[in-house]
Amino acid sequence: MKSIGLWKQRGWFATVIGLSALMVAPAWANAANNDVTDTKARGLEIATEAEQRDSGFGDYRVELKMTLRNKHKQETNRRMRNTTKEQANDGDKTLIVFDNPRDVKGTAFLSHTHKVGSDDQWLFLPALKRVKRISSSNKSGPFMGSEFAFEDISSQEIEKYTYNYVRDEIFDGRDCYVVERFPTNPKSGYHRQVVWYDKAEFRISKVDFYDRKNELLKTLIYNNYNQYLGKYWRANLMDMVNHQTGKSTSLVFSGYQFAIGTTDMDFTSNRLKRAR
Amino acid sequence: MILRTTYVVLSLWMLGVVWCPASAEAGQWDIGGQATLETRYFPYSPEFANQKKIMVSPSGTLEPEFVYEWNDGSERLTLTPFVRLDADDKRRTHADLREFNWLHLGSSWDLSVGVGKVFWGVTESVHLVDIINQTDAVEDITGEEKLGQPMVNINIEQPWGTVSLFALPGFRTRTFTSDNARLHGPFPVDTAHPTYDSGKKERHIDWAARWTQIFGDMDISISHFQGTSREPRLLPQNRGGQTVFVPHYDQIGQTGLELQLTTENTLWKAEGMTRTGHGKRFYAGAGGFEHTFYGIAESHVDIGLLLEYLYDGRDSRFAPPSIADNDIFGGFRIAMNDTQDTTLLFGASFDHHTKATFINLEAERRLTDHMKLEFNSRFFVNVPANDSIALIRSDDFLELKLNWFF
Hints:
The complex is a heterodimer. By secondary structure, chain A is an alpha+beta fold. Chain A folds into 2 domains: about 1-55, no CATH class; about 60-160 and about 170-270, outer membrane lipoprotein receptor (LolB), chain A (Clam). Chain A contains 6 helices and 13 strands. Chain A has helices at about 1-15, 20-25, 25-30, 30-55, 150-155, 270; strands at about 60-70, 75-85, 95-100, 110, 120-125, 130-135, 160-170, 175-185, 190-200, 205-210, 215-230, 230-240, 250-260. The model of chain A is unreliable at about 1-30 (pLDDT under 50). Chain B contains 1 helix and 21 strands. In chain B, the strands form 2 sheets. Chain B has an 18-stranded antiparallel β-barrel. The interface of A and B includes residues 103, 104, 137 and 274 of A.
């Protein structure tokens, strides 16, 4: 974490003195050979700082309402509950139980995400009482028929992308770092994503998703951030718009509960049979 | 008798729990369920003289689910009664308790007491290893609809795997369609007077155990069941010149193995079992793969291809017949991944000795938040008289089902 500390100090110092262009720019914008490496390192630093600030939350539970809108603004709703447990040296473990539409009520989805390699996923089908282990290679497929792909809703581990700092920009009144990230998984549906992190708290404000042809596909806006346990920020509203189809999906989060005392035993494929 | 006693004791105890919760914290009710209206269409006339010439047959079901949870969800009561009314088949008009149990969730173990349902297995075309619950055979011919089974079940999770132990008091006999109904052979079946190997008859207590473990991408399960066979042998009896089939339930031991290897886009699946008590020890197995192409032609449509080989070494002189003794199963699954979750599943089992083919098509689409439309069809092609499916070979049907979820 030393490098990030140094970089942050430098950024703060430069701003205060008002010599940002002179003092900061030479470090990472000069000398053509170092350009790319430096913006890459800076991008990674920003993403790492964002992750650092969100690590240590332990576990949480939250209710989700997903509203799907088609081109004609007709709406369809989905409701589900999400329980997530952080892992010390690996991706998070997540359990999602569906409540609505009613035909999928009781269906449960368990995911063990991994920093490296493919995630482990299981599905519980209540009518047959059957737990099916499923392939996690379907990254780009839609989650519940929404504009969110499976890869958008899975745990965003640092290792899943390479990074490149682009510029600073004011977005929605907040001073932001703009960072490009490139998925490391070849099955990703994206060529790249552009992420706006606010400088104050390193929260994501906006993500632009570019498809495999590098054309703008979707934009995700994070709204209504709340802070939990005095440290962890969660957006209570996420709006995803598909620019190519005109469809959109809103995710409303409610009833966040942190420190709920889950154990890894609550996230096993055996316990999935008992999920509700 | 034992069933009735179990139900009564459980009912009283559960009433006590729900209305006088031991803990100060109040529990939580969750009531839901589904109702269906369906119509079957049989395009061909029945083959046997005893069968009524029914071509269109409506039916309906109701299956509410009552769940009461307390102690922060670590205690749960579930009650799921099921009832079907059928216009043409008196035996298909029936009721059952699909679930009626108390569940306790411990930190690395859980205990369930009462009537429940348990599924074992990995393959798609047959469920050889699945044995805890009796098949509710009047519901469908796929064998996937099950009767509730009284049980005491404990599951213990350890680093070396999950162990599940079952005591199964109270045997459920298989359901059969009425003697004059479609999907019924030429002879009456005396469901009221089944016979048993065991002198304790339906009161014989069966037991089962299963170990399951995950090794990276590989899931393995080994199980054993000892007790009354869920599959009856149909023994012909001559009653005043009329042949009547009497279901006979043997005592068996069945050891099962399940394997699934989950790779990128392919699930490799195999399950097998060996059984004693139905003649000489025999083996049966099924194995194959499901390969999925995600996002066909830049769309959201997924297409999965299924291929499985089925073998069953039973001697039909001593064992109930198997419908898949030497079959190849091929099929595909299409998921539109649209807002309505439209899916289509097509499968065909081909017996390469008798050339008999069984074709199965299932499609469904959500209509509203509370409604779903389903279409199923089961067809029998080129079935010779010596194939075990011959008894229903003229009872091909199409089925339209409207499901209402509440």
